[in-house]
């Protein structure tokens, strides 16, 4: 067995990459995959093994099983699985690979099926590069593959990123509508020569090098090639490559596409390291500031000391993802937020905290609350389509840049508000709800804020208790009846019964205290359930 270290350029040890993200990056090189939602191990190295090899311990290893194909690989998979590798990759036809699922499932091992035309040395080199390029910290990472996925979601078509020599650097995963150019480019790492010559003859590369931002290329059915959109990648005035989008980008997607290209240019210029590009949109300073550290965010962001800041807290939760993890969905959300910030030339910082995404918009001004809300709604729509994911956000108030914790607290409070159908919950627009929630939280925690009659009502007749609360919240019998789905006389009866049990005037002078007592008592009941 031979192992690839996956070392990164500066010599530090590789920290690995989630298997789901590695599979995303390998894209069409894999024609089969099998692993579950709750199994997304980190891949820290790549090894080549042959039938008969034995591994004593293979935690975090992606094993490339060579010298055997298809169903003949089943015994070797079973033997290698005893060492606990992150995944085993094997070649074969789709039918043969599907039959290997049984051996992989019995061995509790992830199985990756490799395109039979792809040389093992090429897959080994790419996988080792991807593993080695993983960021050393838990900071959100931005790399060419995740940016390609982000552009594909925004534009609605498969994406490839090429350098100035037309070598394929990264690409998005593909749907069914993939043409020969994309397939051959990915397997061969460069577009077919005939098509590259045609593009040169049409002046496409001349236009991109001369500074034209977007070039549309017509369909060429004689070459099996669909229409495309090319976007030149530049950094500090130098042409570095091209982003290709198959088909016509979705309406309104061009600004975000250009923002992504800005990040791609910075990433390519910095030598592909995710942290270098992330510095445009992410800084450890935000995480440190949220931990209470003495951090000068204005100085780090390069903005005037008197600048203001806006914090948003975002939850991105996968629902029904066939394979992958919540981390994969958060990564997709972070990358799209970064792209939208770059397209609007906003100064933002992004970090993860307690399973949530925190975005800090530095140098915030008029209209930036609306910008953040619009960006979150766009991300929510894209991730709902791509992952069936639910995205919600709380937006804090705009504060002086030194009051990051105050804006963060408002955002967290807004996020905790009841769902009203909008993925964005604005602390300013819903400030009265936040104040009421904070008041009720304090009352609920106060053991002296109780009333024996209210406690008895909640215990003996919870339907009456909830009907009274609806009556008080909604201001009338009819509205409460409609909300609870009962006849209006039922609500009247329950209100009279509540008055009898509690001894309080629930429709008169005691209304306010009854509502507060009921809210606190019902919340305590729900917490104890």
Q: What are the SSEs and their pairings?
A:
Blueprint: E1 2-4, E2 17-18, H1 19-26, E3 30-34, E4 42-43, E5 45-49, E6 61-69, H2 74-81, E7 87-91, H3 94-99, H4 101-107, E8 111-114, H5 120-132, H6 144-155, E9 159-163, E10 168-171, H7 180-188, H8 193-201, H9 204-209, E11 214-217, E12 228-235, E13 238-246, H10 254-269, H11 274-278, H12 284-290, H13 297-301, E14 308-317, H14 326-343, E15 347-353, E16 356-362, H15 368-387, E17 390-395, E18 399-400, H16 404-415, E19 424-426, H17 431-445, H18 452-460, H19 462-474, H20 477-484, H21 488-502, H22 511-528
Parallel strand pairs: 5-6, 6-7, 7-8, 17-19
Antiparallel strand pairs: 1-5, 2-4, 3-8, 9-10, 9-13, 11-12, 12-13, 14-16, 14-17, 14-18, 15-16
Number of domains: 4
Shape estimate: globular
Radius of gyration (CA) equals 28 Å
Low-confidence segments, given as residue ranges, are: 2-14, 133-140, 272-279
Q: What is the terminal separation in angstroms?
A: 55 Å
User: Strand order, biggest sheet?
Assistant: 1-5-6-7-8-3
Domain PucR C-terminal helix-turn-helix: 477-519
InterPro entries: CdaR-like_regulators, PucR_C-HTH_dom, PucR_C-HTH_sf
Protein name: PucR C-terminal helix-turn-helix domain-containing protein
């Amino acid at each position: 067995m031979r192992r690839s270290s996956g070392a990164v350029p500066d010599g530090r040890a590789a920290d690995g990459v989630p298997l789901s993200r590695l599979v995303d990056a390998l894209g069409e090189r894999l024609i089969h995959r099998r692993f579950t939602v709750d199994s997304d191990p980190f891949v820290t190295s790549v090894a080549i093994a042959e039938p008969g090899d034995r591994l004593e311990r293979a935690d975090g290893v992606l094993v490339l099983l060579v010298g055997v194909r298809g169903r003949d690989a089943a015994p070797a998979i079973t033997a290698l699985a005893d060492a606990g590798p992150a995944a085993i990759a094997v070649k074969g036809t789709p039918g043969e690979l599907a039959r290997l699922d049984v051996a992989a499932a019995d061995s509790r091992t992830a199985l990756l099926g490799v395109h039979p035309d792809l040389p093992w040395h090429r897959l080994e080199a790419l996988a080792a590069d991807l593993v080695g390029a993983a960021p050393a910290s838990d900071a959100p990472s931005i790399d060419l593959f995740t940016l390609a996925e982000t552009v594909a979601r925004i534009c609605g078509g498969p994406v490839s990123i090429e350098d100035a020599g037309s070598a394929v650097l990264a690409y998005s995963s593909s749907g069914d509508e993939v043409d020969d150019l994309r397939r051959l480019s990915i397997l061969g790492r460069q577009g077919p020569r005939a098509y590259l010559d045609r593009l040169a003859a049409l002046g496409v590369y001349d236009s991109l090098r001369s500074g034209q931002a977007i070039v549309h290329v017509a369909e060429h059915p004689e070459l099996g090639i669909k229409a495309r959109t090319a976007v030149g990648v530049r950094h500090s005035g130098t042409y570095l490559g091209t982003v290709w989008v198959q088909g016509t980008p979705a309406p309104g997607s061009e600004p975000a596409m250009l923002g992504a290209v800005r990040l791609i240019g910075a990433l390519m210029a910095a030598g592909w390291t995710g942290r270098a590009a992330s510095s445009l949109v992410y800084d450890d300073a935000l995480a440190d500031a949220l931990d209470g550290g003495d951090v000068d965010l204005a100085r780090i962001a390069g903005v005037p000391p008197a600048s203001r800041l806006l914090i948003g807290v975002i939850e991105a939760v996968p629902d029904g993802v066939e394979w992958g993890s919540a981390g994969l969905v958060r990564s997709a959300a972070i990358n799209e937020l970064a792209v939208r910030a770059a397209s609007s030339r906003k100064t933002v910082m992004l970090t993860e905290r307690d399973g949530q995404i925190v975005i800090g918009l530095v140098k915030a001004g008029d209209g930036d609350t609306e910008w953040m809300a619009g960006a979150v709604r766009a991300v929510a729509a894209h991730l709902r389509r791509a992952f069936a994911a639910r995205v919600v956000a709380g937006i804090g108030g705009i504060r002086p840049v030194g009051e990051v914790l105050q804006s963060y607290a408002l955002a967290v409070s807004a996020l905790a508000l009841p769902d009203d159908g909008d993925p964005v919950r604005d602390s300013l627009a819903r400030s009265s709800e936040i104040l009421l929630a904070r008041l009720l939280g304090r009352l609920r925690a106060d053991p002296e804020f109780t009333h024996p009659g209210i406690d008895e009502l909640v215990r003996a007749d919870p339907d009456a208790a909830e009907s009274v609360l609806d009556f008080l919240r909604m201001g009338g019998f009819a509205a409460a009846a409609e909300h609870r789905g009962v006849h209006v006389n039922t609500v009247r009866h329950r209100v009279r019964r509540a008055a009898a049990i509690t001894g309080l005037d629930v429709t008169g002078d005691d209304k306010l205290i009854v509502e507060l007592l009921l809210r606190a008592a019902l919340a305590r009941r729900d917490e104890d359930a």
